[in-house]
Design a protein that fits this description.
alpha/beta, five-stranded mixed sheet, four-stranded mixed sheet, 8 helices
């Protein structure tokens, strides 16, 4: 028996927000000091660091649960399963449904319950629940689903990563240009085929690291805006990720009989192009190796950082042949890895 992905799906919103669309924003530091200079220079520097040129935003009538449903529908169709046979629907997100032009997250009922409702699944023993685990939430959902299947609590699970980060960003914060919306989903089930999930590892660092990502007020201290927005200490996160993620990836691989040279692709959370490149570089340096060409597919250039949605979306796009010069073939060994609010880290080794 193995536990394998039998279907994938993603939903990429149609609304495109390009870097130039931020040209009229007045940016402030976290201390409330206005950043003087041409906004175009701030945007150019941002692109060089993150690799992001544009991102996608959900339309005004869409919410996180809508995006989650749309990717789930595609994954179910791709897997050819009867949705009534699903044992679990696990949705990773961070802020719930946030209506456009409001800033209050809505998680009652859960996003997973709303997705099950939209799928019109009647089976009461299809259990729907949410995972709040920062950006690594989708991988964590996959790890949990694997545990359910291994313990005979489930046969088939739907795991979704969905987010509408455009609803919780501060227009006066440069970091607002990183975030985007989207959704990706997979069907995970027990099968007689070889491969599947080989190993996994998860970790939570909650001392000083706990508040590297948080909810805070606008950077524009002159504003009367009392809403809270997603905030982060970028430099601290960069250093944390560079120190911790490569070791977690190695620990995940070390649990197996596979060699680092067996890895065909590394699908890492699309957080920041320079940071992701540095993480993978350091991972290979742990084995005294250089990073192989083409080992790390990227989608951040056009899709931005949609948190929990980045990895399942990237996986689906590669499998559907929509990422240039990237493919996944039967027998390929993939290493998934993510880092995010918590601070949480996880990695998962998977063979197609």
């Amino acid at each position: 028996m193995s536990i394998k992905i039998t279907g994938t799906g993603s939903y990429i919103p149609e609304e495109i927000e390009k870097n130039k669309d931020f040209i009229r924003h007045n940016f402030f530091t976290e201390n409330g000091t206005e950043i003087i200079g041409e906004t175009s220079n701030i945007i150019d520097k941002f692109k060089k660091i993150t690799g992001i040129e544009e991102r996608r935003y959900a339309s005004g009538n869409q919410n996180t649960s809508d995006l989650a449903f749309l990717s789930a529908e595609k994954a179910i169709l791709n897997s050819k399963i009867d949705p009534e046979t699903l044992d679990y629907i696990i949705v990773a997100h961070n802020f719930g449904d946030v209506d456009k032009n409001t800033f209050q997250g809505d998680t009652v009922p859960s996003i997973a319950a709303r997705v099950k409702h939209k799928l019109k699944i009647k089976n009461p023993y299809c259990v729907a629940y949410d995972v709040l685990f920062g950006c690594p939430g989708w991988i964590e959902g996959v790890i949990q689903a694997q545990s359910f299947i291994k313990s005979d609590m489930a046969q088939k699970c739907l795991i979704i990563g969905a987010e509408t980060l455009s609803r919780v960003i501060d227009k006066h914060d440069r970091d607002s240009m990183i975030y985007s919306d989207g959704s990706g989903a997979i069907i995970l089930e027990k099968t007689e085929k070889t491969g599947g999930i080989i190993s996994s590892i998860s970790a939570s660092y909650t001392l000083e690291e706990c508040n590297f990502l948080f909810f805070g007020k606008t950077n524009n201290t002159l504003s009367k805006d009392q809403n809270k927005y997603i905030k982060m200490y970028g430099r601290k996160i960069y250093e944390f990720a560079l120190n911790k993620v490569p070791n977690a990836m190695k620990a995940c691989l070390d649990k197996t009989d596979f060699n680092i040279l067996d890895i065909k692709k590394i699908l890492i959370h699309q957080a920041n192009e320079k940071m992701d490149e540095a993480i993978v570089k350091r991972f290979y340096e742990l084995f005294d190796l250089n990073t192989p060409d083409g080992i790390m597919p990227m989608s951040i250039k056009n899709l931005g950082n949609s948190s929990v949605a980045t990895i399942p979306t990237l996986l689906d796009l590669i499998l559907k042949g929509e990422i240039k010069d990237q493919s996944i073939n039967q027998g390929d060994l993939l290493l998934f890895a993510s880092v995010g609010a918590g601070m949480n880290i996880n990695a998962l080794l998977y063979q197609f």
